[in-house]
Amino acid sequence: MFVLVQNALNVPTGRPQTGKSPSKLCNVGYGERGMDTYRTGGNNLLLRQLPESESAALRPYLETVTLRTGQLLCDAGQRVRHVYFPKEGVVSLLSLHADGSSVELAAVGNEGLIGLPALTGAESMPQRCEVSQPGTSWRIAAGDLRDLYPRLPQMQRLVMRYMQLLLTQVGQTAACICHRTLMEQLCRWILQTLDRLQSNELRITQQRIAEMLGVRREGVTEAMGKLQNLRLIEHTRGRIIVIDRTGLESMSGEAYTIVSKEVRRLVGDAREMTR
Predict the structure, then answer these.
(1) pLDDT above 70: residue 20
(2) Closest CA to 172 of 261, 82, 55, 66
(3) I need a surface site. Which of 140, 146, 181, 262 has the fewest CB within 10 A?
(4) Burial state string for 40-66 with b = 16 or more CB within 10 A and e = fewer than 16
(5) Mean pLDDT across the stretch 150-173?
(6) Inter-CA distances, 206 with 60, 72, 79, 107, 123, Å
(7) Is the domain covering 2-12+19-269 a CATH 3.50.50.60 domain?
(8) What is the pTM of this model?
């Protein structure tokens, strides 16, 4: 199903980093707060929910790695050699087209994992997995995780729920591209990216956003200007600060709301985990 949705999105077509948010901007996303180091999981919502027995089984095989902007974790068609459980940062799953263009099908942060085919038997990635926002991640060799997987029943349940979440995100991306305005697509993209960061600021170029959305840069420039005129964002070259998140959400359409609710329902809310 994932590949079918990807094939349906044959649409035409910066160094990001987090920054300090203005003090009045305290409305953070589901993955932004309360993620102290806990058992093996650290900041990853999937690993945090494992029982101690499963955490202990995974612990000897996990290592922490740095995610650098533009880093390729796995290309389309390549065999999955490592599975990543991000702590911070964002990884984009990109559909590649014959003309060299691409579009972001889904974004993965600390709510998920990269490398699902290693656990489903498919073995190779149907999309390019590229770091769009820097951070850190747990990493485990795909072969080691496959060997351990039959003895990790809670992880199996969590992965199945995450697969449903990922399909929801891809489906809403497809619907948004086909039926929503560029303005709605842009607002959705900004919000879903910020939800995975501890900031209300993005450092990314308009050209890179256009590539993610599969649209022309001129369209992104025009939409950015309108959002700034409405005082929803502040925008300078390579930098976006959200100053009115509620207003931005009101312009994002239903796709963002649907996916956000599914994250909380299927994976959990980081803020609840610390209570």
Answers:
(1) no
(2) 261
(3) 181
(4) bbbbbbbbbbbeeebbebbeebbeeee
(5) 94
(6) 42, 21, 32, 18, 34
(7) no
(8) 0.81
